Known about the structure:
This protein is an alpha+beta fold. The protein is 41% helix and 16% strand. Among the domains are: 65-99, no CATH class; 140-225, no CATH class. The strands form two sheets. It has a two-stranded antiparallel sheet. Strands 3-4 form a two-stranded antiparallel sheet. 8% of the residues are buried.
Amino acid sequence: NSRKMDEVHGSGGYDSDFSDGDEGGESSEGRKHEEEILQKPFQNSRHSKVAHRSFHSNEVDREEARNRRAHIISLNAFERHKKFVGDYILYYGGQMADFKRSVQNDLDVLRENHRFLWRDEDEEDMTWEKELAKKYYDKLFKEYCIADVSRYRENKFGFRWRTENEVVSGKGQFQCGNKHCESDEGLKSWEVNFAYVEHGEKRNALVKLRRINDITALICLIDLFF
């Protein structure tokens, strides 16, 4: 009878179908799952994560880059230029005098590179200074000249082409072509050979000039030929 009771209650060598073989009848996976269910949303995990050192270093680098960019943007063009030049010298070596800012303005560039007439050979090996002077030359009107004859007794004369404003006002065509004369009566056209020295080279050009038909004008123009 005792043997039969053991068989009924499972003590006769039969294992339970619900046993997982662990003490206490509960597995480690079950306990972990239960802990996740019971954990509150705002509760930190049992093992908090620690930021890696490289992550902190990258964040610091990004913050420094943002600060440098903000500083460079706040500078004007010339201040940025000085900063970049200073960084270049600091890294590659050299002297600040090699990067000294030129005080030459556009008018100085035009005076140094201006030509009364541009030829094909003048446009060889063009620099930005020459291109600036050529661009100004192309805007001039080359039919009549404006003359400066204030030093004609020294046999020195100055001629230049007219600007757009002078063409609109009629200066040099409907007014006397002398720089210091505004008369518009008794004008006569003269075509003379203008000999000049430019960039160390002697040149000449045939130009037209509107002048008053008087003795002073004739003397000036005669001096042009001799």
